[in-house]
Write a structure and sequence with these properties.
By secondary structure, this protein is an alpha/beta fold. The chain folds into 2 domains: 217 residues, UDP-n-acetylglucosamine1-carboxyvinyl-transferase, Chain (Alpha-beta prism), CATH 3.65.10.10; 213 residues, UDP-n-acetylglucosamine1-carboxyvinyl-transferase, Chain (Alpha-beta prism), CATH 3.65.10.10. The protein has 13 helices and 24 strands. The protein has a 4-stranded mixed sheet with strand order 22-23-1-24. It has a 4-stranded mixed sheet with strand order 2-15-17-16. The longest helix is centred in the middle third of the chain and has 13 residues. The two termini are 17 Å apart. The protein binds shikimate-3-phosphate. The site of shikimate-3-phosphate (S3P) has 12 residues, from α1 and α6.
Length: 437
C-alpha cells in the first residue's frame, strides 16, 4: 500500500461511473451462502481486497468457492458451494482476515462453538481493533475463546463450546457485532435477542430472512432462532459508500455533473444522502428499483453551494463510513460543521477523526478534534499538501476528492489502500476528468 499518487484540480468533471459491488452485501453473500445447503451464484461481488479476504478465510475452512472476474471488469461472479451449517472443516493454518473488520467479526460468529480449533487474525490494523465487543457476548453464549490483551485483540482462538441463546444489550450500534451474534444465534439453543442503542445497517436481517432463517426485528431489537439456510442467488448492488466520493466531488467542484449508476439505497445506508441534501447538494435519484431485496437507483450529482451542518445522534451509525468524505464537503461549505457521537471512527481501519483532522489542517482548514468528533470551519480554500492515508482506504480516497478542488497538487502517500474497497477508484477518477501524477 505504499504507492504515492498526486491529484490536481481539473477544469471540469463529467462522466458516468459504476461503483463496485457493495462491500457489506458482498461479504454477507459469500459468508451466508457458505453455510447454506446448496449452491448459489453471486454476481457483481466486490473486487475489493476485503471481500477477497472473506473468500480466503472461507476456503481455509474447506468451503469450495469459484470466483471469476466479469468481462467488463466490474465485479466478480461467484459460485459458492454451501457446506451447510455444520460443514466447516478444521483449518490447517491460521485464518487471515487481512484488513477486514467485517470478515473478522462475522466469521467469529460462525467459528464460535465449533468442534475444532481455529485461529483468526489479520493485519496490524485488525490486530489493534476492539474484538472484545464480539468475544464477550460469544463467551456468554457458551463459546470458548481466547485472545490477546485480556481477550480484546486478535489473533482470536476459538476452542469450541456449545452455544445457547442470550438476550444481549449491545453497548455500541454496530452492524458487525449484531451480524456476528445473529450468525451465532443460528446455531444456538433458543431465541437470541439483541437490543441495539441505535439502528445500524440491516443487510444481515434482510439476507438471512430471504434464505429462510427465522429472523426478525422490532424497533431496535433484532432476534434469531436456530435453523438452516437455503442458498440465495443474487446480484450485489453498487456500493453507496463508494458512490459517496463522487457525490461530494460533484458538489464541491464548480463545474461538475457526475452520474453514478446502480447504487444500493437501503435506508440504513443513506444517511450520507440526507446530510448532503441538508448541506444544499444538488443531486437526484433516477430509475429506482430492487436489487437482491435491496432498493437501488442511479444518482446524478452537480456542482452546488454547500452550507455547514451538524452531524450527530442516530444518523451517525448509518453514515459512519462516509464521514471522512463528508468532512471534505464540510471544509468547502459555508459555515461550520459539527460532528458528534462518532467515537466509533477512532476504532476503524485507522483513527479516522485524527487522520481527517491531520490532513485537513495540512491543507489549510481550521479543524478542532473532540473525543467523539470534530468541528470543521468551512469556507476557506483547500491548499495542496503532502498527506498520508495511514493505509486507510477511505482516507486515501477522501484525500483524492480534496485534490480535485485544491489550489495546488495533493500528494497522497499510501494511495494503494483504495484497493481495500474500490480497486478501480483511480481509473474512475481519471474517467471523470481528474488528473493523476
Ligand atoms: C460494516 C459495518 C460498519 C462499517 C463497516 C462495514 C458491515 O462497522 O463501518 O465498514 O459490513 O457490517 P460497525 O458495524 O462496526 O460500525
Amino acid at each position: 500500500m505504499s504507492k504515492a499518487v498526486t491529484v490536481s484540480r481539473p477544469r471540469r468533471l463529467r462522466g458516468t461511473i459504476t461503483p463496485p459491488g457493495d462491500k457489506s452485501i458482498s461479504h454477507r453473500s459469500s459468508i451466508f451462502n457458505a453455510v447454506a445447503n446448496g449452491t448459489a451464484r453471486v454476481t457483481n461481488y466486490s473486487t475489493g481486497q476485503d471481500c477477497a479476504s472473506t473468500l480466503r478465510v472461507l476456503r481455509g475452512l474447506g468451503v469450495n468457492i469459484d470466483a471469476k472476474p466479469s468481462p467488463d471488469g466490474n465485479g466478480d461472479t461467484l459460485t459458492v458451494h454451501g457446506a451447510g451449517m455444520d460443514g466447516f472443516r478444521e483449518p490447517d493454518d491460521v485464518l487471515d482476515a487481512g484488513n477486514s473488520g467485517t470478515t473478522t467479526r462475522l466469521m467469529s460468529g460462525l467459528l464460535a462453538g465449533r468442534p475444532f480449533q481455529a485461529i483468526l487474525t489479520g493485519d496490524a490494523s485488525i490486530r489493534s481493533r476492539p474484538m472484545g465487543r464480539v468475544i464477550e457476548p460469544l463467551r456468554q453464549m457458551g463459546a470458548e475463546i481466547s485472545a490477546r490483551k485480556g481477550r480484546t485483540l486478535a489473533p482470536i482462538v476459538f476452542h469450541g463450546g456449545s452455544l445457547r441463546a442470550i438476550d444481549y444489550a449491545m453497548p455500541v450500534a454496530s452492524a458487525q457485532v449484531k451480524s456476528c451474534l445473529l450468525l451465532a444465534g443460528l446455531r444456538a439453543e433458543g431465541r437470541t435477542q439483541l437490543r441495539q442503542p441505535a439502528q445500524s445497517r440491516d443487510h444481515t436481517e434482510r439476507m438471512l430472512s430471504a434464505m429462510g432463517a427465522r429472523v426478525g426485528s422490532d424497533g431496535l431489537t433484532a432476534w434469531v432462532e436456530p435453523g438452516e439456510l437455503r442458498p440465495l442467488d443474487m446480484e450485489v448492488p453498487g456500493d453507496i459508500s463508494s458512490a459517496a466520493f463522487w457525490l461530494v466531488a460533484a458538489a464541491i467542484h464548480p463545474d461538475a455533473e457526475i452520474t453514478v449508476r446502480n447504487v444500493g439505497l437501503n435506508p440504513s445506508r443513506t444517511g450520507v444522502l440526507t446530510v448532503l441534501r441538508e448541506m444544499g447538494a444538488d443531486f437526484e435519484i433516477r430509475g429506482e428499483r430492487s436489487v437482491a431485496g435491496e432498493p437501488a437507483g442511479d444518482l446524478i450529482a452537480r456542482s452546488s453551494e454547500l452550507r455547514g451542518v451538524e452531524i450527530a445522534g442516530d444518523i451517525v451509525p448509518i453514515l459512519i463510513d462516509e464521514i471522512p468524505v463528508l468532512s471534505v464537503a464540510a471544509a468547502l461549505a459555508d459555515g461550520k460543521t459539527v460532528i458528534r457521537d462518532a467515537a466509533e471512527l477512532r476504532v476503524k481501519e485507522t483513527d479516522r477523526i485524527s487522520a481527517t483532522a491531520t490532513w485537513l489542517k495540512a491543507a489549510g482548514i481550521s479543524v478542532q478534534e473532540s473525543n467523539d468528533g470534530m468541528t470543521i470551519v468551512g469556507g476557506a480554500r483547500l491548499k495542496g499538501a503532502h498527506c498520508q492515508s495511514f493505509d486507510d482506504h477511505r482516507i486515501a480516497m477522501s484525500l483524492a476528492i480534496g485534490g480535485l478542488v485544491s489550489d495546488g497538487p495533493m500528494k497522497i502517500e499510501g494511495a494503494g489502500a483504495a484497493d481495500i474497497s474500490y480497486p478501480t477508484f483511480w481509473r474512475d477518477l481519471e474517467l471523470i476528468g481528474g488528473s493523476l501524477g
